Amino acid sequence: MGLRIAIDAMGGDHAPDVVLQGALEAARNHPDLTLLVVGPKGLLEERLTALGVTDLPFTLVDAPDVIGMDESPATAVKMKTRSSIHVGLGLHKQGHADAFVSAGNTGAVMAASLFILGRLPSVSRPSLPSFYPTVKGGSLLIDVGSNVDCKPEHLVQFARMGVCYAKKVWQRENPTVALLNIGEEPGKGNEQAKAAFTLLSQAQGLNFVGNCEGRDVLHHPADVIVTDGFTGNILLKFGESLPGAFKILFGQAAERLGMPREALAPVGALLKEVQRAFDYQNYGGMPLLGLSGTSLIGHGSSSARAIERLIVAGAEVAQAHLPEAISEGMATSA
Amino acid sequence: MGLRIAIDAMGGDHAPDVVLQGALEAARNHPDLTLLVVGPKGLLEERLTALGVTDLPFTLVDAPDVIGMDESPATAVKMKTRSSIHVGLGLHKQGHADAFVSAGNTGAVMAASLFILGRLPSVSRPSLPSFYPTVKGGSLLIDVGSNVDCKPEHLVQFARMGVCYAKKVWQRENPTVALLNIGEEPGKGNEQAKAAFTLLSQAQGLNFVGNCEGRDVLHHPADVIVTDGFTGNILLKFGESLPGAFKILFGQAAERLGMPREALAPVGALLKEVQRAFDYQNYGGMPLLGLSGTSLIGHGSSSARAIERLIVAGAEVAQAHLPEAISEGMATSA
């Protein structure tokens, strides 16, 4: 692909080691990518030596300031201009990288991305989506936490941006859109959902299929499922908890049934296979949609494998030219 | 127990046959209960004959009007005073029954219950809770759809009413309360959740343990999980969909892994056992909390077994004297 990806070496619960390992894997498996690993250079060199790396397959870019997981995102953005997030986003902004990726503090990365890359003129509120597993492969859930207090018109913009993602990155044709609500019929829901339903029904060029309920989500109600960032975040994190919770629930059930250990082997294999769909580690991360640029946010507890996936996702999204597609999608709509 | 339960024979997707079958089972298994089955008498007698019943173990109470699942609850309540919901609630109001139970249109039953039984003076908004399965047995999720637009102070009342239920019906000591939110720290959330957190923290006599996230729900964050009826309804229905969705996901996984049929038997048994916890049919129904009376609402697609459980739940809740407990709980609080 020949794309250049700037990577926040200090982002995530296990940074920088896990990020360096992920970047090493990405460099090995995707030699066509140019990787710019951003962080305090001395520290990164020290950790790479400790990891036994002698022949560096990527470039280190110095960023001596560190933003903690517990810092206020707003303060961090303003104060620490030599942080890995700032420097990495700057590389992208100045045209030295095609995308920026980070598994750091979501609030800090979102605030810095908005601050440094800027918002597309036609977008009121940039929005963070997520992949959501379904029995038919998966939907895009938008928003999952970047906008917790929304107006109905924001949900329409989320829908349009989500459609652009499903079209350009997932190559889905004429993606369908459903509104997450508490009933199927029009007129159901809280004030926000009722008004959003009306706006979505009237929106030009949107393949809106109506309301979907909580029970429909796993059955693939649409390519794009629209909701506000409060409900979306709760549903996202609930889904992420299913693998762990089901492991416990299956263990308890096996005990209640007095099931012999040897009968559990196929169950374990099957459970693992189902869990794969709910494991965020396989998806890497998602771009904040609506920016003049490409900034992907990964999970804070990303493993090296998840970081590798995040880097590859950064390349895939950069190739899709989402800012142009979103600007176009917003302009042609009513 | 010697309690008298009024049953809406016309409530539910499969009424009246399934309700009659459930009432027959309840009469057989709980001979101490007195059952008053309310509906169009001629129709009920006809259906009972068709079901081969000759010796009636309960009393039929005539209510000739029928409310459809698609009728506006508000209109139905005002217009059809001889409906099974109206007549059944009237029996309870007039002291001829200790509780009313229905698997009918939730909106209609709630509106009629509020209209006929009335609200406790100290309660602003009656609220419908639900059992939610967790790895430690289960929590009470409140509200699950009766109040979709809430003020922060409503959430505090939901918490207090939920605590009364957990104490009186589940016999839990000093029940804990968590607020469903998008982060653990105070200050997280949308405007409603932030304000509710402050009020819950200051509330006298409430065992508030703080915010819980979507990922915490199945891990039993508290005895009572408080949220508004929009998010609560979506989470409830999502949970209800897990058994069906997981059956499909496990089938797909078995196919992908090329797993032989004989290896799947223990998986099926285990999956069934886990699914039991998520099957609303095992819980019957829940009372609308905050009323001057006891009115339980079951699932629209209740089976005969679920109706039997609903009737038994009606007796259990009537015995707990919730209206008195809630009045007391509200009065002693700040």
Quick overview of this protein structure:
By secondary structure, chain A is α/β, with parallel strands linked by helices.
Q: Helical proportion of chain A?
A: 40-55%
Give the ordered list of helices and strands of chain A.
Answer: EHEHEHHEHEEHEHEEHHEEHH
Strand order of the largest sheet of chain A: 3-2-1-4-11-10
Quaternary form: homodimer
Shape by Cα distribution of chain A: globular
Task: State the helix count of chain A.
Answer: 11
> Would you tell me the structural class of the helices and strands of chain A?
alpha/beta
Note the gap between the termini of chain A: 36 Å
How large is the radius of gyration of chain A? Answer: 21 Å
β-sheet strand percentage of chain A: 5-15%
Largest sheet of chain A: 6 strands, mixed
Mean pLDDT of chain A: 93
How many strands in all of chain A?
11
Largest interface: A-B, 52 and 51 residues
Low-pLDDT ranges of chain A: none
Q: What do you see in this structure?
A:
- With 334 residues, chain A is of the alpha/beta class.
- Helix content of chain A is 46%, strand content 14%.
- Chain A contains eleven helices and eleven strands.
- In chain A, the strands form two sheets. In chain A, strands 3-2-1-4-11-10 form a six-stranded mixed beta sheet, with helices on both faces.
- The first copy, chain A, is globular.
- At the A-B interface, helix 8 and helix 9 of A face helix 8 and helix 9 of B.
